Amino acid sequence: MTERIAFRMRLHPGREAEYRRRHDAIWPELTILLKAAGISDYSIWLDRETGALFATLLRTEGHGMDSLPLEPVMRRWWEHMADIMATEPDGAPTVAALEPMFQLD
Q: Of the listed 12, 23, 63, 80, which one is catalytic?
């Protein structure tokens, strides 16, 4: 069984092109790590007016998302992205969970 989750992040003003460039060149080892953690159908959307990034993904039951912050490749990716988006003191992106309100299948 899979679960869809959504969350919001914040991009620094004027960094849209760089954010896209970095994600267009996402590291293969990061993609492998995310898929191994049970993540699929991962999309990130930009609200250009506010700089908000909205992400959705599917994760499997028994997913490994909670252990991703312990992985060296994840920590390197956070360091790679820290100059263009809001982050926490540990380097993780600042994330706000979004509450599901409606879905049409």
A: 23
The angle that helices 28-36 and 72-81 make with each other, rounded to 10 degrees, is 120
Q: What are the Cα distances from residue 40, in Å, to 16, 63, 97?
A: 23, 11, 18
**Is 67:36 a contact under the CB 8 Å cutoff?**
no
- Whether 23 is catalytic is yes
**Mean pLDDT of the 90-101 span:** 97
If residue 72 lies in a helix (H) or strand (E), which one and from where to where? helix 72-81
Joined tokens for residue 84? 């263009």
User: What's the rounded Cα separation, in Å, for the pair 35 and 31?
Assistant: 6
Q: Please tell me the predicted confidence (pLDDT) of residue 73.
A: 98
Q: Which residue has the tokens 């959504």?
A: 6
Whether the predicted model's global pTM rises above the 0.90 cut: yes
